[in-house]
Amino acid sequence: MSRFDIYSDKVAVLMGGQSGEREVSLMSGAGVLQALQSLGVNAHTFDPSQRDLSELKKDGFTRCFIALHGRFGEDGTVQGALELLGIAYTGPGVMASSMAIDKIMTKRLWLADGLPTPAWRKVTSAEATLVAYAELAQPGQPMIVKPAREGSTLGLTKVTAAGQCAGAYALAVGMDDEVLCEQFVSGDEVTIPVLGSGALARALPVIRIVAPDGNYDYQNKYFTNTTQYLVPCGLPEGEEAAIQALALKAYNSLQCRGWARADVMIDAASRKPYLLEINTSPGMTSHSLVPMSAKAAGISYAALCLQILQAATLDYAAA
């Protein structure tokens, strides 16, 4: 289901939801809704935490723009429900979405495909976190502890001393029963949006992120103006192109389609890039990075929303 008629399709912008990123999702959805309506799209808001998804079919919606973030929106669950309803949706499909939100599974797949990602350990206790700290923490560098299936740095701790391991594990496991310890990579933090599918997918301009004290947390992502987003990124041309190529490989490794955004750290000493994660329903707020990169590529916010919507499809189209 790929044909899109701007004048006849009834579009639901899925926003809000039940995850810890509900507040951000509402902001993303509001921006998308306004942009689509400004272009004449018959778009309406739909909050799955307030209404049953079965109402989409009853109300005649033929296409969904997923502006949900995190669990029950970015993890394959909503995608699976829309497959059963036969309503085309934006972004990656069921399998890609469920794999990408799980940072442990993502790392396993990337490593199998020979793609670089920081060293890591899955831990199941505070004691195991302490052991991981001894293995992964570099001299003078922290270790990252985070839930395996959350986004927007929710539940993430930079552990700088062994005594912080128990608290970091408790915070992460409070959000997810799978916890990931990851070697910290010191250097440039960059993000790369990707649009399209398969051989037609293309990476947009790289954005370099300069956060206060190097702390790109939930608050600095969405609610402050002190973080700098550099696009053009200021990296050497060859380095930027190599990172874009890596993002495309990571995107296709997970069999993403439509759109997504890859997060990468570049080691300051070796200049080697390391993949951190892929977001399959990235933010679309005033602080969000995909619209910023798209603008640098000559794509307006409204045009970006329309392009993403036009690519909406199903994994299993009706015969």
UniProtKB/TrEMBL annotation:
Database matches in InterPro entries: ATP-grasp (IPR011761), ATP_grasp_subdomain_1 (IPR013815), D-Ala_lig_Van_CS (IPR000291), D_ala_D_ala (IPR005905), Dala_Dala_lig_C (IPR011095), Dala_Dala_lig_N (IPR011127), PreATP-grasp_dom_sf (IPR016185)
Keyword tags: ATP-binding, Cell shape, Cell wall biogenesis/degradation, Cytoplasm, Ligase, Magnesium, Manganese, Metal-binding, Nucleotide-binding, Peptidoglycan synthesis
Top EC category: ligase
CC cofactor note: Binds 2 magnesium or manganese ions per subunit.
Annotated active site: 21, 152, 288
Cofactor(s) the record lists: Mn(2+); Mg(2+)
Record SUPFAM superfamilies: Glutathione synthetase ATP-binding domain-like, PreATP-grasp domain
Protein name: D-alanine--D-alanine ligase
Lineage: Bacteria, Pseudomonadati, Pseudomonadota, Betaproteobacteria, Burkholderiales
Chain's gene name: ddl
